[in-house]
């Protein structure tokens, strides 16, 4: 064995799993890394801490199970700091189950109610039912689902969908991603999505379903999704437990909106 190989082996100390976890936490604390920031690759961290990659993987698995970190593959991957919150990009139409899966989490849906109902005045207006189907009776699907992550309630999702666009929808598995079902079964996918985000407090109904106290901070997103021809196909309201979510937005530039910018 060469002297350099012996030196490399001697520099890799052997600690217990708990010791290695403490080393990783100290590294995170020392660099003041925030959720979403990258700790590094296994090779980089192993060399920095002087432990074997096998021991490192065991420690990382323990931290990932506790949702302290997320291991991502591919370009820009590596070990990413986490704090148990699910991160959702505001300007994306990626489904919530896919977002959770990418972050190493398991999201499940439970259908609380699914009925056909007459369109309300606001449904008719926001889904533009009169303009796109003027001679039809306007009915909608009214579907409410409870979304849970790792076994704990995360959000309530209420969707209003024009029934004429999705025949037979209530006979399908409504616990799966709606957008994937729209695409695969009906050839419908979002071209434009408008969302409004606001904070609210949980009322008695939301608190009971989400298993939180009345007055707990929630984040409500109102969404209208349209096809390429401009026809709306979804009106939805998602309500998230604020302490379990993080919302991010990534953009490549800054747009001035001030009316006085050119004066």
From TrEMBL:
Look up keyword DNA-binding and say if it applies.
yes
Q: Give the matching Pfam families.
A: GntR (PF00392), UTRA (PF07702)
Record has Transcription as a keyword: yes
What InterPro entries would the database entry show? Bact_HTH_transcr_reg, Chorismate_lyase_/UTRA_dom_sf, Tscrpt_reg_HTH_GntR, UTRA, WH-like_DNA-bd_sf, WH_DNA-bd_sf
SMART domains from the UniProt entry: HTH_GNTR, UTRA
Coiled coil regions in record: none
Identify the PROSITE patterns for this entry.
HTH_GNTR
Q: Which residues are in the HTH gntR-type domain?
A: 14-84
GO biological processes: negative regulation of DNA-templated transcription
One of the record's GO molecular function terms: DNA-binding transcription factor activity
Q: Sorted alphabetically, which keywords does the UniProt record give? A: DNA-binding, Transcription, Transcription regulation
Name listed for the protein in its UniProt record: GntR family transcriptional regulator
Q: Which organism is it from?
A: Bifidobacterium fermentum
């Amino acid at each position: 064995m060469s002297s350099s190989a012996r030196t490399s082996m001697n520099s890799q100390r052997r600690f217990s799993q708990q010791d290695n976890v403490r080393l990783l936490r100290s590294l995170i604390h020392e660099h003041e890394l925030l959720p979403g920031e990258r700790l590094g690759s296994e090779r980089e961290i192993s060399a920095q801490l002087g432990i074997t990659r096998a021991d490192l993987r065991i420690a990382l698995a323990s931290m990932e199970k506790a949702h302290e970190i997320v291991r991502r593959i591919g370009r820009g991957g590596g070990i990413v700091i986490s704090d148990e919150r699910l991160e959702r990009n505001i300007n994306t139409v990626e489904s919530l189950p896919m977002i959770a899966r990418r972050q190493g989490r398991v999201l499940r849906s439970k259908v609380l109610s699914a009925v056909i109902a007459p369109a309300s005045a606001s449904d008719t207006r926001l889904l533009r039912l009169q303009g796109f189907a003027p001679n039809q009776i306007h009915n909608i699907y009214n579907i409410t689902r409870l979304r849970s992550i790792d076994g704990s309630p995360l959000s309530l999702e209420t969707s209003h969908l024009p029934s004429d666009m999705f025949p037979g929808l209530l006979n399908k598995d409504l616990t799966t991603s709606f957008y994937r079902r729209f695409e695969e079964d009906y050839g419908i996918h979002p071209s434009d999505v408008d969302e409004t985000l606001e904070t609210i407090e949980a009322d008695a109904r939301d608190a009971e379903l989400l298993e939180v106290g009345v007055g707990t901070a929630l984040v409500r997103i109102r969404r209208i999704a349209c096809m390429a021809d401009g026809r709306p196909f979804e009106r939805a309201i998602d309500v998230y437990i604020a302490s379990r979510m993080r919302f991010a937005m990534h953009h490549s530039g800054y747009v001035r909106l001030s009316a006085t910018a050119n004066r």
